[in-house]
Records
---
Amino acid sequence: MNRRMAPLAALICGVLVATPAQAAEEGSKQDLGLNDYRYFKVYPHIERAQKAMKANDEVRALSSFEHAHEMAPESVRLTLWLAEAYRHFGYNQKAQALLENALKNKPQNPDLQRALEVIPVPAPEIKTVEQLRALQQHCDAAPTIRCRSEVGNYALKLKQLEIARAQLSDAQFRHSKEGRQLADNYTQRAIFLQQWTAADQGFALLDGEATLSEAQYQQWFAILLHMQRDQRILDLQSQGVMNSAGMQLAYAQSLAERNALTPLRRYLASHKPVFDTPAEERNWLRLLATYSQTPGSAVAGWAVKYQENKKYFLTTLVPISIQKGDWQGANDLLNTFPGTQALDQRLALSLARKDTQSIMQLTNVINKTRGLSPRELETVSYQLVLQGQKKMATELLLHYWPFNQAGQFQHSLSTRLYTQLNEHPEWLADESKARMAKPLPTASQRMAQARLFQGPENCTIVRNLLGDLSSQYDAESWSHLAQCYPGQPGLALYAAQQAVTRSASPYYQRQVAYLAYAAEDYKLAQASWAQVPVAEMVDDDVQAAARGAKILGDDKAFAYWQNLAWQRGMPDLKLDSVTAQDDASRGFALLAQGKYRESRDALEKARAAYYPHSPEITRQLVYLNERLDDKPKTREYSERVVDDIDNTLTPHQKLSDKQKEDRFEFRRIHEDSERRWTFTYDGSFGLTPNSLNSAGGGNGVQQNKSYRSYEQVEAEYRIGKNQIIDGDQLSVYSRIFAGSESDGNSNFMPVYEPMLGVGVRWKPLRNQVIYLAAEQQIPLGHHDGKSDVMLRASASFFNDGKYSDDWHPTGKGWMAQNLYLDAAHFVKADYQLYTADYRMSWHQKTSQHQTIEPYWHAQYNVSTDSPYRDNTLGGVGVRFNTWFGETHYNAYPHKVSVGLEYQHAFSGHNRDMDSRNSLFLTLGARW
């Protein structure tokens, strides 16, 4: 046994011995509850016990305290001293038994109870319900606060809520701190087990002790709502409990969700909570507007606390009333506002009631104040058409045309207006007609405009609207345009052919046949007549087809048409030929036949003699001369096109996006036509020692090697176009490239093993970026490089039009992409390199000629040398690009880029894969 005095016992003895005044008071006969005689008999034993405690003499201390306690067992103080002595010398069970026995005689004594509670008792192992019931029986036999608490909490763990609830029937325990804690635990456990009745009982117990917090009241309230204990909620609210504004709102919403309309209406009518937030008040107003007996008057009579909820009347409550058909309720709400306010809601109510007079009055007021919103215009015009007020709807739509700010409603508004005007063209006044003749920015808008202007008298307007010959026009629009070139069969034929490519309708085939005949393309005319079903041909069609066959010298076709005419009982065929058409018609006809040089000559004659200001002919001459590689004329005509576009500028008229894109396109053609020499620089520098640029056909490093850094400089001279076949391009070039390692030496700068490459590069296809090259590679200086001949094929896809990396003159930025494929064969070394790289990026403009370009790419490289090697990598990076050198007629001829790229190698065979991550600085320039 430990004979050293514990700190607590030392403190007690110090207080008893070293502080006589306090010891005298605590150990007095009054404190001990003894008379003079018994105090005289007991005191000497107490004194000996205290001295023994000070000396840590266990035998004497315990025997003296026990003897004193035997002489006065009813003394609480002696019981406490003896229990403390037992605890001091390690006899906790004796102390516990002593105190429990004393409590049987004095169960309400707090000192005994406290002394018993501080004795540590090992927690019993209760894992089964049988063990729990045994513990409960033991506690019922000798109940204490401690055992009640233990039984109750073990019962909660074992989900025996009834046993836990039974412990709380002990009033003494229930009012104790431990009892209140068990009640709280009981309640939360019941909630967890979703035993709502038990949870309700638990909250009631806690409420009886006045210990519920606000959060607990919220829990209790939520449970009562879940149980639909409406009467209990109302009783508690009548007592001032669960009666906050938020709880009143929640209870009302619960009734609404259950569709308990009668009690909900009573509750709404009898309660006027004062809410703390606008949202709560808004939800209450919604309930009033939705479920009250007279919603309009109920909401209108509400004293709004938050003025922002006045707007809620208009945005939500009025529409709800309108939707329900409660015109009076909506009107009551609107009457709470001045007559000059809530015009949109008043208009919505008038539309719902189909009150045409009111609709027009409100529309006029709105037009004078702020204008109709696109949604309002859509609704008002639609309702007016439904109500038979079509002219009124048309006038309203004309007032807002061309609906530039209408967003998603633009199409439906335009369709409605054009439909009405097609039915009633007389409603289009001269002023409105002049406005609607001005081309709108998109192709779909211009097509819809053109449909309004039928008949030859409107052909000037149609040509102005559709004369840009956009590829987005549909068959009907191209056919319409073809009808508006009465003296120009070539232009008309081109437009009609565009209609046929979009629709194989016999009508469009017939149109092509007539116009091809007029343009003297009799073979095309016969082919077109063959596409028209005989049943849909009229006699004039047969006559025209026979005439064309006769002129063409196609005896078989002529006999067919002649026989068809005889079967129909037609009179003799008239085979008079027509006069030759002008050079413009012939030029466009020759263009459709692929006769580019003859087409150019005819169009140049037409332009010089008849159409000096025709934008269609001028633009076509740019394309034709570029295709024929006539550089001086390409520059001449592209300058004219740029000037024509610039001449449309006025102080009040800016270039449209389409005009800006066209001007840039012809500036690029002009710049490209002047270019003979092109100088480029490319460099990639590894910023970490283990960075590696993978060898491949596309990076320009020496064959079959990977460097930390590399660079190359190239000069290319264009020999010209159409050198070998029609539409090709031929160039010669020379380049110098080098890496950053040689014989174990390494340098950040790529200065080792320089190579000279001299070659010829051929682009065989006009409309595809595919190059074939043959290059002689020669080592420069004394190093291990070897001379060889490289045969190379490379291609770039998806990097044109709106996805190109060239400057875009419109918008704040653009998406670019490129699929680059490269294959190289080294003749002497007899092996191949292959590269495939897909890149996607976004060019964010930072100025008129600079972009920040974040990008990602995935690359696969293969070398068939022994051993076979390959790798797959991905990279993300960002580049800064700047274009410069633009003039009035030339697009930016120069570009410089600087970037930072992080690469990760995903896999590889026979590659240096010690480091899969690399960081590079990239530089590029084109001059």
---
Amino acid sequence: MTTKKPRDDDWNDDFSDEEFDFDALNPDDLGVVDDAGDRTVKSERQLLTLQLLRQSIQANHPNDAVMADFAELVLPRLLEYAIGVTAKGGWFFEALDRRNAQEGKAPVRRDNAGDQSLNTHILNGLFPANLIERRLQQLDTNARRLIDEFERRLGVAGFVLHDFEKFDYSRFLSLPEHYQKITRSLETNIRKLVLAGSDQTIIDEHRELFRYLVPALGIDRFLDPNNPSQWQDHCDDLLYIAYNAQLRYDTNLNLGEGGLRPRLRDRTLNCLIDLACLADSLASIIKHPQDTEKERFSEILHRLSDGKLRLSYHSIAENRGVLTNIVNNAVMAAHTDLNTSTDCHYQPLLYLPTGVIYLMARDAPPVDAASLPDRVVEAIKSLCAGELCQKQTGFGRAGKGMKYADYYSQFFEDRDLMQVALSATLKILNPRKKSVAQSRSESLQQFQAKGVLSADFDFAFEDDIRIDQIAEFGDVVTRKIWGDRRDRITTHLKSIHPGKSAKAAIAKLPDPNLVAEIASHWQLEDYLPQIYEIQHINETLKELKLKGNTGGVPLDWYFLAAQYLKNHPGQSEEDVRALGIQVIDFIINRTAPIAAAYDLPDGWDDVRAWTSQVVSLPAQTQTPETPASVEIFLKELEFYQAAKKAGRGRQQICSISHSPYSVSEQMESAVLFTPQVYTNKQMLGGSNAKRNISSIAGVEMMLRQILMNQTQATGKRFEDGKYRYLYFYPTYYFTPETNNFLARAYSNIAQTRFDTNLRNHFVSPQLHADFSRENYQTADAFLIDVDLKRKQNLPEGDKERKIDRTFKLAYPENKPLTFYFIALPPGRDPTDTESWVMPAWLALAFPNILDVKTVVSESPIPPYRDGAEFEETVFLDSAPQAFRVLLQRDRFRLHHLLEGWQDTDPLQTQHPAPLNILTAAYAIHLDVNAKRGKSGYDANWGKLTELANNLETSPLYVFTTSVSGHVSAMEMHRVPAKYGSISMISTLALMRKL
């Protein structure tokens, strides 16, 4: 056999391309047997993301023929040619930085160094400019007089082409080769280029270029579906708009001899140019809400609208996650509530993670900033109260009885909270649960044997879940709900009464023995002596100098519940519920007059103060040097320093973030991670192992537990799930259309594992690995299930029923999200490596599917406020060893994902595409390390680190492992020996893709 000399980029000199004829291999030759999933070849289909984006455009622009045709004819071509192509940042800045480093020059300014795809750049400019143009048509403006449907189509087409030099010409198969050779060069400016040997002018060259680009992008049919060739009559109109969408560079206003010959009138062209320039400015400049204050926007909008329209905004100084979304919506409502049936004063135009930009009428009334804190509180209440009633999130049963998260008292008055507690108790202590009544009886009998309880009382009763239900409910409403109310009254009295007078005031506070009073209400007075003795067990133990205590278990309620059922036999679950309602009425009638005498804080004062500090309107924008900001910083610094003091004067501070707000100890039922964890914000050597949390961080955790958590897991149970957060950042904002699109996709993300179906999507039955951009984009159907909601509501046992195990925000459809994040559970008893498998892959894949920036982190707090804070497209925050070995770095530019990157060192080492590396490594892992056991199929991701290390040091070791692994599989399943070559050959095929 003849062999060719290996190329420099061959992965191993010992294997040449001719040693195995991969194209000639087929499943029959290899005897492919895949127990972990079939390898069916999927037929070509329309992108799911294209369907969702079209639906979003239709929802935002019903009965708009222009936008409907754009979505049908042009949008598919943009997703094909412009996603993954750099418009801002990307390869251009990387090449500039590399050249400057080699020449010893300082790095260039970073204003536009952040990644932005060409697709996002076009849509982010087109959609808001179209909305503004639609608004101008309703006013007495030149746009209304000069722009009809065809002119509008020309304006849209001209803007789609305005960055024609930034397209990747290698993707256009119809383009002549000489155009494809001039892509991505710092030395070549296509706008000023005349090809060597050509006698054409620059304009002629661009006319020639448009002859290929316009049909390829579907613009010819968009301009006139019935006569696609008509666009050529308006080629110079398109060029004129494309040239002049920018204000300073590469413009061309030459309409004289040898210049452009547009068909439209000057005034119409100028109006379209202003719209294109506004679109380009929005897509390029707006990275923060306050960027709308730049003079360029006011000038262009003033010219277009005759001074009738301008831009406004609100901004938020922090990004907490869910809380930030709610604040954005509350402040947005404060703007849009000023609109009337005849006047649209504020129209949301752009959505950023930390604010919203509005199209504002000149005579719009100002927003009342003082009302915003209360609006935020009411928004939180309205979103959460219904969810809490329905799901009873934060309720659970512990050894001491029923417990609930402290935040319930902030959403409900006592009666409503007791009703929620009743539903939660009956739901948790359902008839399928094992009763602990007999063990409570045995505890009482043990105390009786010690002489703590009278010997002549009968404390014997059997297991009965109804006893548990009545006892646990009775305890939670009397000792906990009423007890919490009494504690709040006590705290209030301490705050308003100085010194010893506070004790006197507290002593006057009535504290009824509700258990005894309810016993009398149930006509069980004969058992009051036993109840009183049970309630004083701990005191009696001390008097008798005996060890032990009740441990907080409501033994009095268990005894009373047992006697009630003994005297009222035959009680059904509905009877128990009716009894609970009677108990609620009795307690409220007894305690309401006591509570009404005190005007207690509602617990939302910190949220109100925080809102007033972080939300800014145009007239209130503060710089970091303003006194208010300095005061907050100094207060946070003072708290931090005081937290390190020993003894008196020590200050509790939040373990999640620096915060000048009130701090409390974390409770297991109220947070999504383990309270007993080390933090450097707590004194070493102290006796308290629990972390502290500020009221604002506590509200964020509460919102996640209520609006995101699809299980009842809290504290350690949630943290042990090893959820990893995947954050989505826009570049640099969402429009109403793209935001609606992402909301549709986000709510239906259901794939939490890199399984054999995904592997088979990239590796064919013939073991051909397809790692093309198009194939990654068509993987959207595996990741997003548009029928997820219906499948979730199917009854148990239905084959189509699907459980969504993701941790994502459930938000009303009529309220736009401004920041998206999701957490994925890896599986049962996962390793740290397994917990990163799917989040890391999605982070690398989603920029070419959803056109967003992504960050993966273990941190529940967003690592960045917005996408402008980091230049790259993907950031893997402290990924485990396997991913560091495979990917070599943790930050990736947009073009890196599928093209790889080049080091800036003198050797300029070329690295392969990280997404391809990860996909190939996962496919190899599933082929080599997956196994079947008694419990079923196991992907065995814990061995990915070993695989990664082997791939880095000696790929041949992987082949050895693969063959030995299949030998074991053959012995287990009695597979013919010839099948043992499958894994090695598929591994070789995939390794070639690296």
